[in-house]
Model the fold of this input.
Amino acid sequence: MIATGAEPHQAQPISVAPVIEAFGLRKVYGDRVAVEDLSLEVYEGEVFGFLGPNGAGKTTSVKMLVGLIQPTAGTARILGRPLGDLEARRQIGFLPELFRFHDWLRGQELLDLHGKLYGMSRQERRRRIPEVLALVGLAGVGHLRVRAYSKGMQQRIGIAQALLNNPRVVFLDEPTSALDPLGRRDVRELILRLKSEGVTVFLNSHLLSEVESVCDRVAIVNHGRVVATGPMSELLSRELTVEFRLGALPDGVVGGLATYVQVEAVTDGPRPVVVARASDEAAIARAVDYLVRSGAPVYGVVPERRTLEEVFVDIVSREGAEPR
Amino acid sequence: MKVLVIAQLTFREGLRKKLVWGVLLLSLLFVVLYVWGFHLFVQDWREMEARRAARGVPAGTYEIFASAMVLLGLWTVNFLSGVMTIFASVGTIASEIDAGTLQAIVPKPIRRWEIVLGKYLGFAGMLALYIAAMVASVILTARIVGDYTPPNVVEGTLLIVLVMLILLSLTVFGSTFLSTVTNGVVVFMLYGLAITGGLVEQIGTALDNDVLIRIGVISSIVVPSDSMWRLASYLFQPRLAVNFLGPNPFGTTTPPSAFAVQYAVAYALVLLLAAMLVFRKRDL
Done:
């Protein structure tokens, strides 16, 4: 349990505003724009998914937020404090994408080092280290050198390191890249557990199913800017595909229907089916209303729920996936 | 506080380096040979004195030759410590940026300059211990085997430590913006330049050639490590020995001034500060 021994964060009242705010963050390397213009807000207790194709600037964005990279322009606040603020950093956990540690240290020595860097007392570290080791499934191997760990175990100890200080905000950059399906499930459960404890999680991932199953809100980045953002449910239902199963197809109905929804396919026959795209649910209601008025018996309206992957592919391909 | 965490980590990490153990092994070998050599020197000296006495020739000045032996020993210590300084710390920041180990460290509640300072202190501590042990070996050998104690041991040792700090500042500074290999090449060339410049200055002094002396002075402005060693060597010898030896590859008859020492200290400090500043802005 993460909560065991976790002292409630009674640190200085930091803020009730968004936990992470970015205002026009920009990073340029020479003439290559890594991050064009990143603005986003993440609220307390949210699991926030940060998605994008390779080269979209995800890692650069996270690195700016945790203070590894200096933004070329723009600002950001974490826990209401400016980037690099030590008090904010005390309450942040970060798992880098390239989780490389001083691998000549033993697992628990590594955590002890990071605990010291967090400014944790000896007693705190002694209590907390076995806890996080157990939390990430490394109980019993803390005495081994990190070098002897498998890649998956190294990623786990990286996660342990990020949770050591009972952070209020955790940045996880591709936390499951080295994990097998079981390990991925563990991490998913871990994230949900963090969420249940009110921890804000900023999840940088390209595993869409993973994001879909844990995130409350997502932002999709492409070419270094946020191209779509919103609650997961809203994003998934942003453009609905709907199937109208009809008893008949009176003349001109398809044309009339097009004023309400975008007709994509029509299958004629004794039971015609019209597949259409609707901008929102209200449009579907109006379309059904129209169909009934036009004398087409409506046997069924089947909304086709889109997966995050479909939404993602749709948005990104519309933008063009190749980095400029 | 956080500085000490990094210093401790660096110290431990330094001791894990094969190079450090290589130099330590070499140093041990050197100490054994040095004790043996000093012993042979003392034996020969006694035989020679006995022969002289038999022929009625006045006794030579033991102090001069014992001092030369000590000087050779300390010169080796200074050289080994210089090599160890450069190669132990050459990749301290650069290689950690490449490996990515800093990515989990830097976002912690620690300031970037604390990381640089911690690393500096970790290496400085390790190397200062090495210097102290090596100087002690040389001095104790002279004392026990040769019954000779050089003057100004503490001041001289501090100057060897200063040489180490100069080289360490230079290496750590380079490591904040150069790759490990480039930094190694550049710093070692500068170290070589300082040593050669020192030699040129000695030759210039012997030949009374102003241009050669000026080259030496310029080199000791670029890297003041060798001039600080020459001051140390001057202090480690009795005046008698300094005058007897004259300008030579290991010492000098014209010691650098107090201003030169201030310059060297400022040099080390400024480079350390520069390293902190560069690292503060560095993208990781």
Summary: Chain A touches chain B at residues 63, 66-70, 86-87, 89-90, 92, 94-96, 98-102, 104, 113-114, 116-119, 158, 161 (CB under 8 Å). The domain at 240-305 of chain A is CATH 3.30.70.2030 (Alpha-Beta Plaits). The radius of gyration of chain A is 24 Å. Residues 266 and 274 of chain A are 5 Å apart (CA to CA).
